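Hey, sorry to bother you again with one of my protein questions. I've been puzzling over a protein and I'd love to understand its fold better. Take your time with it, there's no hurry, and the full record follows here:
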Amino acid sequence: FGGEMVCRPIDLDSVAERRIEFDSAAYLLEPCTRELAEFEAMAWWHSTSPRSRFTGSLIATRPVDGGRVSITGGIDHYRLIVTDARGTRTESDLDHRAALDVCRRVLGLDVDELPSLPIGSASDRSHSGRHGVGNGNPR
């Protein structure tokens, strides 16, 4: 949910359980099947808009030992985010060389270079800091 996570079973028969609230957003889960077509417009936006964090920065995550390791950023500034099984989160800033090393050693990516960003995103940094990739703690 936009960086926030729920790490517990949810009783979908209970409206109170289906309502998920975070500081930044609230969600109401519906116990009904949705058609894939209902998600096409938002999937298109996430994959094409210069304002989407998915087109404006590198994002890679790998589950490890009940937690996860993530890297995000681009060009000259990257961030390593490590979340353990208890939800404790640590963040470290990385330069280009360190980010490439993390992608290879920690995330297991066989890459010679990190991807370049789309034209426009590097100069205006419109996506930077707005989306907080993985910005929440497990609930």
